[in-house]
Write a structure and sequence with these properties.
It contains 11 helices and 3 strands, in the order ααααααααααβββα. By secondary structure, the protein is mainly alpha-helical. It folds into 2 domains: about 140 residues, Ribonuclease III domain (Ribonuclease iii, N-terminal Endonuclease Domain, Chain A, Orthogonal Bundle); about 70 residues, Double Stranded RNA Binding Domain (2-Layer Sandwich). It has a 3-stranded antiparallel β-sheet with strand order 1-2-3. A hairpin with a 2-residue loop joins strand 2 and strand 3. The longest helix has 22 residues.
């Protein structure tokens, strides 16, 4: 893991904790996840500020939200192949926890927190910058496609075809208070798709994008 991160931990216990889900041990990764979330937001903001000097505050904020959401974190975790390394309790493991995007995204944030605790910002900034690029999270492309969110795009698609509006249903709210995780189902035209996110709104947006993809194919 250290080779993939490009950093050798002075305190290896921090990396082990970052990869430990609460189902496995009382010394789990949720506090590091909390720290990593703040660091990711700060670094993403810095990257956007430096690379796009002509963007206004609204454009910067909108694209940053796309760079730091659960889907983006999941893509980073997949790029680093975190799944086999995450320590899970037996029940979570049998339930397919290694494939859950929320668990992978949380572990990714926890790794950012562990890196900061071990080495400060010096190892964190280049890692996050590299992951944003290598995971295919191009900020300019996101800005061009980010003016309309998933729910807006789905609604416009349906209205253009005189179809009824979608129905969103909350399936689950999980996780700690500081890092909740929501699962939502979207139903329209006899089809349905689910979405996940750190807020109900984010989960609905993802569900809308997923069902729109079905409708457009």
């Amino acid at each position: 893991m250290e080779q993939r991160l490009g950093y050798t931990f002075r305190d290896a216990a921090l990396l082990r904790q970052a990869l430990t889900h609460r189902s496995h041990s009382a010394l789990h990764n949720e506090r590091l996840e909390f720290l990593g979330d703040a660091i990711l937001n700060m670094v993403a903001a810095q990257v956007l500020y430096e690379r796009h000097p002509h963007w206004n505050e609204g454009e910067l904020s909108r694209v940053r939200s796309l760079l730091v959401n659960r889907e983006a974190l999941h893509r980073m975790a997949l790029f680093l192949d975190l799944a086999p390394l995450i320590r899970l309790g037996s029940g979570e493991l049998q339930g397919g926890g290694r494939q859950r995007s929320s668990i992978l995204a949380d572990a990714m944030e926890a790794i950012f927190g562990a890196l900061y605790q071990d080495g400060g910002l010096t190892p964190v900034i280049p890692l996050i910058t590299r992951l944003l690029e290598q995971a295919g999270l191009d900020s300019a492309a996101l800005q061009q496609g980010g003016d309309k969110d998933g729910k807006t795009r789905l609604q416009e698609w349906l209205q253009a075809r005189h179809q009824p509006l979608p129905i969103y249903e909350l399936l689950a709210r999980e996780g700690a208070d500081h890092a909740p995780h929501f699962r939502v189902r979207c139903q329209v035209q006899g089809k349905e798709a689910s979405g996940e996110g750190g807020s109900r709104r984010d989960a609905e947006q993802q569900a809308a994008l997923n069902i729109l993809q079905q409708l457009e194919t």
